[in-house]
Specification:
With about 280 residues, the protein is mainly α. Helix content is about 75%, strand content about 0%. Helix 3 runs parallel beside helix 5.
Length: about 280
């Protein structure tokens, strides 16, 4: 899986942020902990590779380090969105374990980010043009990440996860940006197009693609079953709330709820799920 595809996944998670946060907690600890392990292992791998390159006399080591920096900055988008979701779910459901895992992942990535950027600043062999290219990628990844984090930062006070909390809140207050968090609206396609153009030039080798695939697979395995229809698509927030309310109620309104959901699905062109 290419890194730009992982950023598409981040956009999808952001678009369904409230649905994912509100969904009841399930016994899926192993899936979440797998994301945590993969995240830590990948950070350790980036750090170890940079250490090795720092001790290498190969003149190509500077360019190899620059590629690691690009890989890290691209992968950081999905990781930040996932961490924000963990924090938001932890707050919503008062779950200490999710809070702890989120803190561990965030601190690990902050340390790695500081190490990578410091290495670049101190590396004399990097051409100014290469540094400028990496800095442009850094600014793009930060800005797009803050846009994707906007609904979570503004609703759950997750300023620490954002690169620029004020920018996140400005995005959340913007009507166009708010529309971008709804995949059923045309603005969603514009957002995806913007993301794909912004990150079209990210370098990916086979090892990076494998690591991306493992990380995304672990994230998807840890998503609540409650958010999906039978065909594997995400439920809308409205449908999920209606369904959840009927399942939590002791009153005999099941047939009425099914009828209402059927009408809503018909109006959006989706096949009703029974999930």
């Amino acid at each position: 899986m290419d890194t730009r595809d992982t950023i598409d996944v981040a956009a999808l998670l952001s678009a369904h942020a409230y649905l994912l946060v509100e969904s009841p907690l399930e016994e899926r600890d192993e899936a979440v902990r797998r994301v945590w392990r993969l995240g830590r292992e990948r950070v350790a791998d980036w750090t170890a590779r940079l250490h090795d390159l720092n001790e290498s006399a190969d003149p190509r080591s500077s360019l190899a380090a620059a590629e690691i920096a690009r890989e890290f900055l691209g992968a950081d988008v999905l990781a930040r969105v996932w961490i924000a979701l963990l924090f938001a779910r932890a707050k919503r459901h008062d779950d200490v374990d999710l809070q702890t895992i989120g803190h561990s992942l965030l601190l690990g990535r902050l340390r790695a980010r500081r190490f990578v950027l410091r290495w670049l600043l101190d590396e004399p062999g990097l051409a100014d043009s290469v540094l400028a290219s990496i800095d442009r990628l850094r600014r793009r990844s930060e800005r797009w990440t803050d846009m994707l984090l906007a609904p979570l930062v503004s609703r759950f006070d997750l300023d620490d996860v954002a690169f620029d909390a004020k920018r996140c809140r400005d995005f959340a207050a913007d009507e166009i940006a708010e529309a971008a968090y709804d995949p059923s609206r045309p603005v969603w396609q514009l957002l995806l197009t913007g993301i794909r153009v912004a990150f079209a030039d990210l370098p990916d080798d086979d090892a990076t693609r494998r690591a991306n695939s493992e990380f995304v697979s672990a994230i998807l395995a840890g998503l609540p079953v409650d958010v999906f229809e039978l065909d594997g698509t995400f439920r809308t927030l409205t449908h999920a709330r209606i369904r959840r309310g009927s399942e939590d109620s002791d009153t005999p309104y099941k047939s009425g709820v099914d009828l209402l959901l059927s009408m809503l699905h018909s109006s959006t062109g989706k096949t009703p799920g029974r999930g």
